[in-house]
Every structure is written in structure tokens, then in C-alpha cells.
Design brief:
301 residues, two-stranded antiparallel sheet, 12 helices, 43% helix, binds adenosine-5'-triphosphate, ATP binding
Length: 301
């Protein structure tokens, strides 16, 4: 279980807000505060999880992060019995009298959703569409009726009431819906879905500068290169993401590789980090992908 109790402070983890991001964050905060769960959707590495964490931090409650996956089930969400505990009292106050009192109780461990719902945490349900619809169904009662049904829990009450401060923020990648689980319309109908797209050149360069402390022209070289590659991709899937721009910048900075399109070490670094996605996305050979990346690097100088 991941409970993020500290606010993000280090520069590396800084959440950089350009005008668009600021606006998205303040609009989503308004919706969450009014009681509507927000769902950030967009391609891989576009910043969905980062904005979800930034939004959760604004709510100033403990934050719990849960990652969707096909094995997640009601036991993970509600909880389960983990075994038995027994206690024994032996009373031999009077030597000739032996009295034994033994109690055996099943021990229960709260699941993540139950804990968050009871304690009023902010739950980030990252990549929720990777979990099966049967698992996600439980969110319908939480969001609609404000109760969490306690299947399998041998308690007198069949549900717990949702804490008034409990909030949930969802993220998903629409590219992953195909071939995985179809997102349930009933659940989506209860969420305010906001699209998080790739940043433009300026936004991406700003993040590289402020997060990693590179010079303005260096940040632009990397953001231009990645943006030019995105143009080559057009509407194809697997576009190079902000995550890749960050990786290139971090490695170049860490290893003193000059961030210059004409520098061979820099070109090689870009080839190493970008060629696989270029081969997959553009369906070309590694040789062609390497040539393309090298040419685009040279253009950035
Ligand atoms: N506004 C921002 N400021 C600083 N860093 C950011 C910002 N947005 C995204 N990042 C960084 O970009 C990278 C990708 O972001 P993130 O993990 O949030 O994307 P994602 O859309 O959730 O990706 P995935 O779908 O692959 O999980 C991370 O390293 C994150 O720290």
C-alpha cells in the first residue's frame, strides 16, 4: 500500500505548471470539491499521474495510490481474512484447579478502498481501466450511494458509509482499452473526464528547464527533437513522450554529454532512447530509425 503523506518538494519531483496545466488543475479542483470524481485520460507519459498527484495534494488529505491491473479484485479493495489469532488464559490460582480459556478469532485486514473510504483519504486510482469491470463495479456504489458494500466480511453491517472527505481521482490511457477491458460506461458516466495531451514545444522545454536545470537553448534542442519526431508519427500510436525527453535530459546532464544536435555522443544517446519507439511506431528498420533520429538531431542545432 502506498500512502504519500509528504508534499512534493525536491526539484526533480517538481510539478511545473504552464498556463494550460494551471487551468486544468484549477478546473479539476473545482469539480472534485463539488463532489464529482475526475478522470484524467491521455497517452502514455503525457502527465496524467503527475496532475492527479498535484490535484490530490491540493486537497490536503493523506493520499493513497492504487494501480489498476487484471489481478486486482474485491479482496484487494475491501479486504480479506488473513488467518486466525488465538489467545489462551491459564488460571492456576488454586493449585489443584486448572482452568483454561481459549478464544480463536479470524483476523481481518482492510483493503485499500475500505481504508481510504473509512479514513477520508484521497485515492488515486491509476490506470483503472487495466482492472476488470467486475472489480471496478464496486466504485458505482461508492460514487452513487456513498456506501461501500462489504462482500465477504462477516460483519453485522453490510456496508460502510463513505467518509465525507473521501475523494477519488482516476487516470487511464485510451490506447490501452483495445484488447484489455472495455471501460464500463456506467462508471465513466459518473466521472468528469479531462484529456491530458502531450505538451507543446514551449511547455515541454519549460518542464525540462525548471525540473532538471538545463539551459534554455538545451531544453529547446531536446523538446524540438521530440516534437519533430511526434510530427513523423502523426496519428500513429506510441509517440515519444515527455518521459523520454526527461530521460534524455537527465542522462546528458548526469554524464556531461553536450546537448548539441551535432554532437555524436548526444546523437547516440537520442538513438538509444528513441529508436525502439520509432521502429515500433513508424514500422521501419532500426537503420532507418537511427538515420531519422540523427538527421532530426542535426536539424536542431
Ligand atoms: N507538469 C509537469 N511538471 C513536471 N514534470 C512532469 C509534468 N508532467 C509530467 N511530468 C513528468 O513526466 C513524466 C511522465 O509523467 P506521468 O507519469 O505523470 O505520465 P502518465 O501520463 O501518467 O504516464 P503513463 O500513462 O505512462 O503512466 C514523469 O517523469 C513526470 O514526472
Amino acid at each position: 500500500m502506498t500512502v504519500l503523506s509528504e508534499r512534493i518538494t525536491t526539484n526533480n519531483n517538481a510539478f511545473i505548471q504552464d498556463e494550460l496545466t494551471k487551468s486544468l488543475l484549477s478546473r479539476s479542483l473545482r469539480y472534485v470539491k463539488t463532489g464529482y470524481p475526475v478522470h484524467f485520460t491521455g497517452p502514455s507519459g503525457s502527465g496524467k499521474t503527475s496532475i492527479a498527484i498535484a490535484l490530490a495534494n491540493k486537497l490536503k488529505r493523506p493520499v493513497m495510490v492504487m494501480h489498476g491491473n487484471h489481478e486486482l479484485d474485491n479482496k484487494d479493495l475491501i479486504g480479506s481474512f488473513s488467518g486466525y489469532t488465538s489467545s489462551k488464559v491459564v488460571d492456576q490460582y488454586v493449585r489443584s484447579v486448572y482452568k483454561k480459556d481459549e478464544t480463536v478469532t479470524e483476523s481481518w485486514i482492510d483493503g485499500r478502498l475500505l481504508e481510504a473510504v473509512k479514513k477520508g483519504y484521497t485515492l488515486i486510482y491509476d490506470e483503472f481501466s487495466r482492472s476488470s469491470p467486475a472489480t471496478n463495479n464496486i466504485f458505482l456504489s461508492v460514487l452513487e450511494e456513498g456506501v461501500l458494500p462489504l462482500y465477504g466480511l462477516k460483519s453485522k453491517r453490510p456496508y460502510v458509509k463513505v467518509h465525507p472527505k473521501f475523494k477519488v481521482i482516476f487516470t487511464s490511457n485510451p490506447d490501452e482499452y483495445a484488447g484489455v477491458y472495455q471501460t464500463q460506461d456506467a462508471l465513466l458516466d459518473r466521472l468528469i473526464t479531462l484529456h491530458v495531451g502531450y505538451k507543446n514545444k514551449e511547455q515541454e522545454a519549460l518542464i525540462l528547464r525548471e525540473k532538471l536545470g538545463v539551459e534554455k537553448n538545451e531544453a529547446h534542442i531536446i523538446s524540438n527533437l521530440v516534437q519533430d519526431l511526434r510530427k513523423e508519427f502523426g496519428k500513429r500510436k506510441g509517440n515519444p513522450s515527455l518521459r523520454l525527453s526527461i530521460q534524455i535530459t537527465k542522462i546528458a546532464k548526469n554524464d556531461d554529454i553536450p546537448i548539441k544536435g551535432s554532437n555524436q555522443d548526444f546523437q547516440q544517446l537520442c538513438i538509444d532512447l528513441l529508436s525502439h519507439s520509432v521502429v515500433q511506431g513508424l514500422e521501419i528498420t532500426y537503420e532507418d530509425a537511427n538515420d531519422l533520429i540523427r538527421e532530426l538531431c542535426k536539424k536542431t542545432t
